[in-house]
Write a structure and sequence with these properties.
The chain has 3 domains: about 80 residues, Chorismate mutase (Chorismate Mutase Domain, subunit A), CATH 1.20.59.10; about 180 residues, 3-Layer(aba) Sandwich (D-Maltodextrin-Binding Protein, domain 2), CATH 3.40.190; about 80 residues, Periplasmic binding protein-like II (D-Maltodextrin-Binding Protein, domain 2). It has 12 helices and 16 strands. The strands form 3 sheets. Strands 1, 2, 3, 4, 5, 11 and 16 form a 7-stranded mixed sheet that branches. Strands 8-7-9-6-10 form a 5-stranded mixed sheet. It has a 4-stranded antiparallel sheet with strand order 13-14-12-15, with helices on both faces. Helix 1 crosses helix 3 and helix 2 runs antiparallel to helix 3. It is flat.
């Protein structure tokens, strides 16, 4: 192994250490939710004792203790601040995280492995907010998210419409002509089908776009790249081989921001969910109410709720403080078997 290769491996390990430290600090902020006070001398003593016992021939106990004393100090410093957490599904660098930063850059994004974890975490109070994708111009509705929305008591307090620009990423120093396989989420691979075919690149499905970027850094498979966001390139120290590789120009994903609390600010867009009886014309009757009040509908989707039953998602322009909106919602409640105003909010459209 050459000096160059050794230094490359050191850089990879340093990158992992920094990301693990960031993950630890996220957990420290989450732990604050369950603590009555920040100081916990017993826990600190236990932690330092355990780390001293894990010393090795190369790293002695005194050095380890010094490191962890500083880590504990930084954890407590962060816990003293009034940070709020927003959960998203996927790894750091996912487009959901990009959307969360666009909605409120002061929030701390925290990754969850599953969409259900986002909903459960916000419901329990572990996270202050959650952000989830509900529909994409190319891929359609995100079925799993919409199914979770049917039964949640959470409120929609914001929305983000984000253009999805896909990038081909590779480890630093990679010759683009050597890339043969490209890892990414199946939907991202499908959205770049022409680019992959044109460049004779073999698509390899992975669970997450950002996860593929992370894997590329950690495992460095030969002659391989990943399709992910610019943020992923930044977080995982990858080079952008090519930007905007999606086949179609308009590739937009819409995200909803969820909270236990209702939105206190006046919004200009509303989301409702409702079910109707199995009678001819019931859905038409609901839509007729909005048409009569000249309320502009921007989305309507039907999602299977239970065998033989569907729930309808409907978005429209307006505020629930407007008299005509109040009137329309009152009428709709009377003619539906189940009705919920999920929230009134402002939608951020990213250019």
């Amino acid at each position: 192994m050459s000096l160059k290769e050794i230094r490359k491996n050191i850089d990879l390990l340093d990158s992992k250490i920094l990301k693990l430290l960031n993950g630890r600090m996220e957990l420290a902020l989450m732990a604050k939710k369950f603590k009555s006070k920040i100081e916990d001398r017993g826990r600190e003593k236990e932690l330092l004792s355990r780390t001293r016992g894990n010393s090795t021939a190369l790293v002695d106990a005194e050095f380890i203790e010094k490191i962890y004393v500083e880590i504990i100090k930084q954890s407590k410093k962060l816990q003293q601040k009034d940070y709020r957490l927003i959960a998203f599904q996927g790894e750091h660098g996912a487009y959901s995280e990009v959307a969360s930063r666009e909605w409120n850059s002061d929030l701390i994004p925290v990754p969850c492995s599953e969409f259900a974890g986002v909903f459960e975490g916000v419901t329990s109070g572990l996270y202050d907010y959650g952000i989830v994708p509900v529909e994409n111009t190319l891929g359609g509705v995100v079925g799993q998210v919409n199914e979770l929305l049917i039964n949640t008591d959470l409120n929609v307090v914001g929305a983000v419409e984000l253009p999805i620009h896909l990038c081909l990423l590779a480890p630093p120093g990679t010759d683009h002509r050597e890339i043969r396989a490209v890892y990414s989420h199946p939907q991202a691979l499908a959205q770049c089908r022409q680019f992959l075919a044109r460049n004779r690149l073999h698509p390899v499905q992975y669970y997450d776009t950002a996860g593929a970027a992370k894997m590329l850094t950690e495992k460095t498979p030969k002659a391989s790249g990943a399709i992910a966001s610019k943020l992923s390139a930044q977080l995982y120290d990858l080079e952008i081989m090519k930007e905007d590789i999606e086949d179609l120009d308009r590739n937009m994903t819409r995200f909803l921001v969820l909270s236990k609390e209702e939105n206190r600010e006046e919004g200009n867009k509303c989301s409702v969910i409702f079910s109707t009886e199995h009678k001819a014309g019931t859905l038409f009757s609901v839509l007729e109410v909005f048409a009569r009040e000249d309320i502009n509908l921007t989305r309507i989707e039907s999602i299977p709720n239970e065998p033989g039953n569907y729930a309808f998602f409907l978005d429209f322009m307006g505020s629930n403080r407007d008299e005509k909106v109040k009137k329309a919602l009152g009428e709709v409640k009377e003619i539906t078997s189940h009705f919920k105003l999920m929230g009134c909010y402002k939608e951020r459209k990213v250019v």
